[in-house]
Write the structure tokens for this entry.
Amino acid sequence: MYTKIDGKKISSDIKLEIAEEVKNLKEKTGKEPHLAAVLVGHDGASETYVSHKVKACEQVGFKSTLVRMEDSVSEEELLSKVDELNNDDSIDGFIVQLPLPDHISEDKVIEAVDPAKDVDGFHPVNLGKMTIGLPSFIPATPSGIMELIKRYEIETSGKNCVVIGRSNIVGRPVSILLSKKGVDATVTLVHSRTKNLEETVRRADIIIAAIGIPEFVKESMVSDGAVIIDVGTTRVKSDKTKSGWKLKGDVDFDNVAPKCSFITPVPGGVGPMTIVSLLQNTLQSFRQRN
């Protein structure tokens, strides 16, 4: 019988811990952490994420600011807004919600964010520090994954871990975190060009699925007792929901779950942890700045 990893519950626990600390910090400093988010255009998934982030800020006693810009905004205007937020002393951390319109370079925008306010953990300075084990802001989703593994006391030392997907936002950073001293997993990173991908995944004790293809991981790819962390969130059309779509993970949950020891559902697994990690990073920035 498998254990369903409840990201909603863990994230609620962490929010209570953060709220308590914010209360104490406010008594000491008279200020509360302030997170800003820049939202360009009206992408449905981005709108949902950002509204969850704003709500989470309210729940823990943070101040939050939402900066809305139209799809037609020029790269120069967006970079100027980033510069303004970098220099705004009242803001502890901010994110620019991705994806951005095609005419704007995501790399340029990520690199323009002050690393000391980069609570998404995407800036090369933060990623570089994380790689060599220096204190830094850790990207929110990988950080949330590590927190789930820790709180469910899942054994990682010497375990064979396969990460499916090599994005700079999830796959690569989480592969580095899992191989760190103290975590000590043996990590293989597979992707669309990997030969014998199924075979490699089947040997894994822990599978991190972050490839963005709904139900990519099938029952035949999973060994008995494996731990699965499903990072996928693809919107697929559905006539069974009011919204007309539903979220699907990268794992064929119904068929795979019975073989697992632990597995995250979608939704309700990694998603809530991403938002909480963002709050933790903002709190860390607030502490450093005060």
